[in-house]
Design a protein that fits this description.
The complex is a heterodimer. By secondary structure, chain A is mainly β. Chain A has one domain (7-29, 49-262). Helices cover 0% and strands 51% of the residues of chain A. Chain A is built from no helices and 16 strands. In chain A, strands 1, 2, 3, 4, 5, 6, 7, 8, 9, 10, 13, 14, 15 and 16 form a 14-stranded antiparallel β-sheet that branches. In chain A, strands 11-12 form a two-stranded antiparallel sheet. In chain A, strand 5 and strand 6 (92-108) form a beta hairpin. The radius of gyration of chain A is 22 Å and the shape is globular. Chain B has a domain at 13-51. Chain B contains two helices and five strands. Chain B has a three-stranded antiparallel β-sheet with strand order 4-1-5. Chain B starts with 11 loop residues before the first strand and ends in a 7-residue tail after the last helix. Classes of the chains: A mainly beta, B alpha+beta. The A-B interface holds A 8, 11, 13, 16-18, 66, 89, 128-137 and B 16, 18-27, 29-30, 45-46, 48-52.
């Protein structure tokens, strides 16, 4: 084996299976050095080991809903725990008890349905090695997509941003293994917003005292597999009218979203 | 005619047992449940993955003596 590592030998598994067409990302392990200070010195008197955190992110081109479904909560507001494993055949790491913290889905006219997701995990260990083997299903493209629920506009691009504000919970319990790992990765507030770009400005007065909800808007991609992104109770937040000499004007509208679903 | 690079030392059977109908990787295309013949290097690497299993009687040690075969 050569002394360097190439991406052509890398893999990324979610729960033991190849995590789709991965265009980039990272797996990170962090041991926070804590500075212990005292009077009588300008330097730290000690450096001690802080919380051990594992986290990562990856960008992918979507072929189906399998991976992004893990960004949905159950009826009790909990996220599903998953494992993320990556590296190459000889150098690899597995992140355990992970939760999808953020997911961004986007598509622009002429392009693919793309996603970026980030996870936070409880601890890591050596992986088993593997081969990145994405499905041969055709990835989803803009011409397979359609917007429903927003009237009088033509969609030229969108992004849906989901943030679960997950965080580590360290517990004073010296029986936890590994000792410096958090005991839990907990969910925080779910924050979802969507930015849609149209050829027309929405005919809505943003200064109105009471802006109506859009009860439901969906973007559905129908290809080899079907992915439907459903946004529930959208409240208008920003209308942007770009000034672009000589260019096409794409009106941008950003919405706060109460809830979402991926089916 | 000499064997094509990567074709030497074939004879290991690998079966894809993952969740997709078929997958593609640097060693080829694999249909779910179907046995595909590969070389010893591919068999060694693929058999470490939980998505593949080595099938048949041929064991990896028997022919894992060449470097660079697929």
């Amino acid at each position: 084996m050569a002394g360097y590592t190439l991406g052509i030998d890398q893999y990324l598994y979610l729960n033991g299976a190849t995590a789709g067409i991965i265009g980039g990302g990272s797996m990170t392990e962090e041991s926070e050095p804590r500075e212990i200070r005292t009077i009588g010195d300008w330097r730290p008197t000690q450096l001690r080991e802080g919380l051990h955190r594992v986290f990562g992110n990856a960008s992918l081109i979507l072929q189906n809903k399998a991976l992004i479904e893990y960004a949905k909560r159950d009826a009790d507001g909990r996220l599903t725990e998953i494992s993320m494993e990556g590296g190459n055949d000889t150098e690899n790491k597995k992140h355990n008890n992970c939760k999808i913290d953020t997911l961004n889905l986007e598509c622009v006219g002429g392009g693919e349905l793309r996603g970026n997701f980030a996870w936070k995990g409880r601890y890591s260990e050596g992986g088993g090695g593997g081969v990145h083997s994405p499905s041969t299903d055709r990835c989803l493209m803009w011409f397979e997509g359609a917007l429903a629920g927003v009237a009088g506009v033509e969609l030229v691009g969108f992004s849906l941003n989901i943030n679960h504000n997950a965080d580590w919970v360290p517990v004073i319990d010296n029986t936890i293994t590994p000792k410096r790992s958090a005991k839990y990765v907990r969910e925080g507030n779910q924050v979802v917003n969507a930015t849609l770009r149209f050829l027309q400005q929405e005919n809505v007065d943003l200064s109105a005292n009471a802006l109506d909800y859009i009860a439901s808007a969906t973007v559905t991609f129908t290809g080899t597999n079907t992915v439907t992104l459903t946004m529930t109770d959208l409240k208008r937040g920003v209308h942007e009218r770009p000034l672009v000499p000589g260019e096409l004007v794409e009106f941008s509208a950003t919405y706060g979203v109460r809830d979402f679903n991926i089916t | 005619m000499p064997e094509k690079k990567g074709e030497e030392n074939k004879g290991f059977k690998i079966k894809y047992i993952g969740v997709s109908k078929s997958v593609i990787n640097k060693f080829g295309t694999f249909e779910k449940g179907k046995e595909t013949e590969v070389g010893s290097k591919a068999a060694t690497i693929l058999s470490k993955s939980t998505e593949f299993e080595l099938v048949g009687e041929k064991k990896l040690e028997e022919k894992a003596d060449k470097v660079g075969d697929k």
